[in-house]
Structures are given as structure tokens and as C-alpha cells.
Amino acid sequence: MKVAKFGGSSLASAEQIKKVGEIIKSDPKRKFVIVSAPGKQNKEDRKMTDLLIDLANTSFANQPYEELLQTIIIRFYKIITDLGLNRQLLDDIHHSILHNLKREQSAADKMDLIKSIGEDSSAKIVSDYLVSLGLEAYYVNPKEAGILVSDEPGNAQILPESFEKIKTLRERSGILVIPGFFGYTKAGKLVTFSRGGSDITGSIIAAGIHAELYENFTDVDSVYSVNPTIVENPKEIKVLTYKEMRELSYAGFTVFHDEALIPAFKRGIPVAIKNTNNPHLQGTFVVSEKKEKSKAVVGIASDTGFSTLYVGKYLMNREIGFGRRLLQILEDEQISFEHAPSGIDDISVIIRERQFTPEKEVKVLERIKEELHPDSLSLQHGLALIMIVGEGIMETIGIAEKAATALAHANVNIKMINQGSSYVSMMFGIDAKDLNKGVNSLYKVFFDDDYEYE
Amino acid sequence: MKVAKFGGSSLASAEQIKKVGEIIKSDPKRKFVIVSAPGKQNKEDRKMTDLLIDLANTSFANQPYEELLQTIIIRFYKIITDLGLNRQLLDDIHHSILHNLKREQSAADKMDLIKSIGEDSSAKIVSDYLVSLGLEAYYVNPKEAGILVSDEPGNAQILPESFEKIKTLRERSGILVIPGFFGYTKAGKLVTFSRGGSDITGSIIAAGIHAELYENFTDVDSVYSVNPTIVENPKEIKVLTYKEMRELSYAGFTVFHDEALIPAFKRGIPVAIKNTNNPHLQGTFVVSEKKEKSKAVVGIASDTGFSTLYVGKYLMNREIGFGRRLLQILEDEQISFEHAPSGIDDISVIIRERQFTPEKEVKVLERIKEELHPDSLSLQHGLALIMIVGEGIMETIGIAEKAATALAHANVNIKMINQGSSYVSMMFGIDAKDLNKGVNSLYKVFFDDDYEYE
């Protein structure tokens, strides 16, 4: 059995939903279908979830929301009529929006109720459409599916007891269409996951029913070996391990949020990332272990927006606990760090810039000065990180050479190298201004087979 | 004014002491002379300090020590008579050994008294010899010199108030010869520094009298750019900064123990490392700042005997405080670490092997398992570290490239790279078995100007 999850762009219009229908029809193993809310049809369009959030906020502010409501209803009207489905479905959707807007509940709970209508409606539309194609299909509400969650509006966590209940869905006949993005507390209250939560639902269902494959349908052909906004026409990645996927996602490589996949990863269920618009393409497989050895480097990820906190103190290596006390100060201030290379008299801590407010910055530096008495102390912004990722990196001689050579040839100064913490990645820190030329040069060295240095 | 410190090999025989006399005579600025105990005359010889320690231990064990005592006295006899000095000096030395052996004191205090006789006798011999050359010279006892220390037998620490008293030595006329290695507590008890403590005395006197130069006379022409037991005939280093010196000493680069130089470093006093046997050579200068830019890399240090503690845990980066708690466990077990590179789901901690007993190893691993619940955990021994050191490293593009290329060409797998913590060094971790070929290849790339890869 397979679980197929379709993202917002696959549900944006009748035309797209027809493709979804074709995909489901073409493989009888696709028994579980998880759907997002309708996404954008074009760049100017707005996502259904954003419209619903606006609607909720407008009503909370006691502003007139009729126009917004009309936009939403028209969106659903077009989809439903273009698919030739019964108008009753539209009335049901309209009714549940109005009903939820009028319920006496906290704003947070009401927001979750209204937000969830996008996915819920998509699921009803898709199941009706599959039935219209002559398939045996059912809409299954998350409560019925057994998705029990914690009571944290907008950030629900799955409860472990859910999985036993979900497993029983295997016994049901027909295709089960389940809305993504939300579950129910034990007390029966609807609560949503964090944004992007349809991926979470898909992964939970895949784990619960012990799927042979979890297919994640999106609007790209595959995961690319490097950010396509930095390198033109980069190579596709055919097979990735979970660990490689995770390292790539570390520095801005986001086809989807990798943490959503944890339930599937934990059960060792392979994931396929495919394109609804080109379903015949293989896409990218994410697996726990590769059967065949591929090349040492599978991808290059990169991101900007990092800061370097540098602390120097003569004889630091003699002070047992110095590094630990520094990290304690950061922890007290709720700052997590990416990496903390240390030498005999120095330690540098790499931190996401966004974790600093100007006040926090002053406070952290003050505390370090007062508590650790460093000889030198600085906080520099504008660092970019590049991760070179691949399961073969540790065992392959010459990877560091190739990477350092590529950066030197691009005239990029390496401010930091971190190799050896992870077995599947190597990290370089460079000036943010050098990012594009650095990544392009690395891509050429590792992925362009024709490329040779003159 | 200059402070000249002479190591054991410079005091090992009358012949050597005559060289010391020449050196002092040749520069009237050499007003302060610090001496070690007589060292080895040849490979088979034993150092005076070792003989004295043996003597003390033999007497503590109530074993007959007459033969040992005779060996010591004959050593001094030969030096004194070969220099043509008054025999009265030998009787004084003999008397003070016997006197100290019979004193009613704790073993630790008595050990310090006996150990100190080597340096004390050297100082008396050298001052008498300088007088015999027609120079105005005086033996100055460390108590008289003002070297006040903490009451930690074998590990005395200088007390800050010493420096004011030492400064007054500037006013005295003639050449002052001061024994290295020991000082006195405020209560007047003799206590020795840690082994190699004559360097400490020299550095303290240089700091106290605000010397224009602290000359450290030893038996090598200079500090070498790489360990001469690994690379044949390596280049000499003409000028080093304190920081470079410190980084080089980190991984087994030990002309002398760099921490002994701290008092001199703190006052910015330049240090010259020279050879008693070739005093006309320039030697190596250690300075706070280089006037002229030299090449980016000044030296390569290396050492074996490191372990890697690897901890992997899925979503480690989400657990604020994970790294800090790991370091806390090490701190609790009194284990200091060299370096702790971390990634998204991994952290590796580099630790000196000698810090682990089998019991400690088990305990640390157990605690990590129980308190941090890692997915994977391992402790590997047999790591070697190579440090590439130079003030220009951070600003020079291509250093990492050169180093990684050199290692790749030598077919050495890089297990770890640490760059960015220190501004003056870059660290590579490799298998201990690859150390020689790795260091030789790095040396060629950075120091052999004629070398080019085919």
C-alpha cells in the first residue's frame, strides 16, 4: 500500500485535480490520499489557507468580511463545477465556514477551525471526484482516521497512541481521502499542525499503515543537487538517504520541511518526491540506505544569515569548563547554535542571525565579558554557510581538496571549515557576498563531469 | 638590559660553561643570568636533577645512597676543577646536600630542597667562573631576588607581589647569576616550580626587570618549521609571534614549554631562542607583533594520541543545551577537550587519549547513554592532529586548498578539519598511521619553494 500526498499546487484548480485523479487511478496501490488546501493557480493568486486566515482575523476584528468570504466561495465554486461535481458540496463548505465563524470559542481555537477548512474541503472534493470517475473512494475525517494530537493550537503534536488506530485503516476497502494539516485532541477538539502540516499528516498515515512507499507529490520534478536560484539547470538527485536529506535541509534546502517526515523516517518507509505535472518522471527517492554506491557528493546546500561569536582568551584550554559555560550563557538566553569550533585559546560559535535582537546581542556580550573575562570578544554578521553533503564523504580521499580548490579558484576566502562532526557533510563558512560564486564553483567541481580547471 | 637563561646542556661541563662565559662577556647588556642544573654531557649521561631526585628517593626509602652521592659530587668536582675554581665551592655543595638530607621535613618539602641543589650549584659555579674571568658577578639566591611563590611543592606559582621586588635588582651593579627552578614562600620555605622551571624563572626575571630581551640559550639553532624527527633538515623559523608559538606548542612542538613564557609575554618582552654552541647565529625571535609580513604559514606542528568521542542524535539541533550537557559530563569527569565540531545531528569531541582510564571511558559512555539518549555513540582512538600555523592564514586565499591538496596527494584521508576558531591556525585530524606522510607532504607544499606537483 502507498500513501500519496498532494501539495497545494496539485489542488489549486479542477485541471490540477484531474491530474491527481489520473495519478490515483493509474496505481491501485495508492489507497491513501492526503491533500493540502488549494494553492496558487498563478503567481498573483493567493493560497486558500491565507484567505481563510485573513477571514478569521477580519471577523475577530469585527470588520466586514463578506467580500473575502465571497472570494473563497467562488474559488470552491469554480473547482466543484469545473469537475462536474454536485453543488451540494459547495453548500456544505459554505455552511461550515459560517458555522465556524459563529462558534463561541477562543480566538486560537476558532482560527484552527477556520484554517482547517481548506484541507477538509479539498479532501471532500477529491473523494467526490474519484467517485465520479467510478472509483470506490471515501472522505475520512482525521478524527475517524485516529489522528490524536496535543492541545497546542497551530502547533499540534501527534500522540503516540494514534498509530495503532491508524493501522486499522488498512482493513477498510476503497481509497481513503484524508485532509492534511489537522487532528483532534482526546477531548475531541480540532487542532492544526504547524504550517506545512499536510506533510506531517501524510508522514503519520504512512507510518501508521506501514506503507511500502510514501509519495509526496509537489510541483518540482525532483530534489536538485544545488539551489536552482543560484546555479542554472542543476542536476537532479535520484536517490538520497534520510541523513543526506536532513543535512541538505540544514542550510536552506527546502523542498519540504524535513522534520515533517520524521514519523515515516522512524519506520524506515521510503519517500518519493514526485511532480503532479510530470508523474511519469522518477523523481527523487529518499531512503534509509542506498543499495548502490553513488558518487561521494550528492548535493550542495547553502544559506546566508549567520553570525560568528568569537571569544579569545589566553590559556583557554587550561580552563576546564570554559566552552561549557559559554554555551550555558547562550542557552540561558534561548539561543541555539549551529557549530562551535574551538582551538587552544579561541572558540567561535556560529549562530543564526535572526536569533539576535539588538537587546539580546548586548546582553549576551555583556554576560560573556562579566562571567568569562575574555581577552577578545566579537560578534560578526554576514556569514554564509555551504554544506557539501554525501554519504561517501568521510571515506573518499580528496573531497576537501576539491572543495577548497574550487573556492580558491573562485577567489573566495574560506573563513571556517567544519569537517568531522558529521559523517555525511562538510561545512564551509564564507562571506555572504561570495556565496553565488562559491556555490557555482563547487557545483562545477562536483557535478559538471566535463569541467576541468585550465 | 637582557636576561640570558641557559639550559642544562649549556651547564653540563666546564667546556660548556666556558661558552656561557664567552657569551656573557661578549655583551655587557647581559646583566641577568639564569641557570639550569647541569644536563647530559652525552646520550648515556644522566641529568643532575634526575640524580638528585634518585638520591632523595633512595634516602626516603632508607636505602644506602653513598654511591649516588659520590656520582653527584664527582660531577661537580670535575666541573669545578676543570674551570680552575676554588675547591671550597665543592665542599659547600657537598655540605648542603648532606644538610638537606638530614633535615626534619615532609618528604615533599625535602624533595624540593634536594632537587633545587642542581640549579643552585650551577649558579654558584657560573658566578665564581665569571669572577675568575675578571667580571663583576654575584650569585643571587631567589629569596634575595624576590621570587615569592605559593606553597605547592613541585608546582609553585609566582606571587604577583614578586615583580616589584625583582624590579629593584636593576639598581644593583655587576652581573647577577640566579638559579632557576625555585622560589620561596612568604614563610621562607624553598619550593620548586614544575619541571622545566628554569624557563619560568627566566621569564619572571625578564618580566620583573622589564628586560629589552629575554634570551633563552639551548642546544638547537632555532625553532624549526616542522618536527625534525618527521621531516629531514627542516627550515628554521626566524620570527614567530607569541600566538603562533602558542598554537605550535599545542600539538607537540616543544622547544620549551610555552606556558613558562607567560610572564614575559604579558609584558610584551621579546624572546630570542639561541644555541649556546652557535651563539653567532640569529636563532628564533618570538615577538608580540611582526613588523614585516612573512609568509602566511610559519610552521606545522603535529601530535598523536587523540581520541574522538562521537555522539549522533536525530534532531540534536532542536535540543537546546545538548552540546552543553555533553561538555558538562566531560567536565564532571575532569576531562578537558581540544575541539568539539558539531553538525545538525552530530557532535564529535576530540580528547587527549591519556585522559581516559578504562574505567573513565566506561563511565563517560554510560553517562552519555543514560543522560542524553543518543542514537549512536562511539569512542575511537588513534587520531593524530596536524596544526598549520601562521598569522596570515585567515586573510590568505588558498591555504586550505594547498593543505587539502597536499594530504590528498599523499593519499591521506582527512577525518576532521577545524578552521575558523583561531585566526592563526588550521587543524587537520588524520589517522595516526598517516602522520609521517601527511606532514612531509604538507611541509613540501608550504616550505619547499622548488616543489611542484607533477
General description of the model:
The structure is a homodimer of 454-residue chains. Chain A is 37% helix and 20% strand. By secondary structure, the first copy, chain A, is α/β, with parallel strands linked by helices. In chain A, the strands form four sheets. Chain A has an eight-stranded mixed sheet, sandwiched between helices. Chains A and B meet through helix 10, helix 12, strand 14, helix 14 and strand 16 of A and helix 10, helix 12, strand 14, helix 14 and strand 16 of B. Strand 16 (416-419) of chain A pairs antiparallel with strand 16 (416-419) of chain B, so a sheet runs across the interface. Chains A, B: Catalyzes the phosphorylation of the beta-carboxyl group of aspartic acid with ATP to yield 4-phospho-L-aspartate, which is involved in the branched biosynthetic pathway leading to the biosynthesis of amino acids threonine, isoleucine and methionine. Chains A, B: Substrate binds at residues 49, 119. Chains A, B: It catalyses: L-aspartate + ATP = 4-phospho-L-aspartate + ADP.
Principal-axes geometry of chain A comes out as globular
- Corresponding CATH architecture of the largest domain in chain A: 3-Layer(aba) Sandwich
CATH topology descriptor of the largest domain in chain A: Carbamate kinase
Query: In whole angstroms, how far apart are the ends of chain A?
Result: 52 Å
Give the radius of gyration of chain A.
25 Å
Name the average pLDDT of chain A: 91
Number of helices of chain A: 15
**Oligomer class:** homodimer
Number of strands of chain A: 17
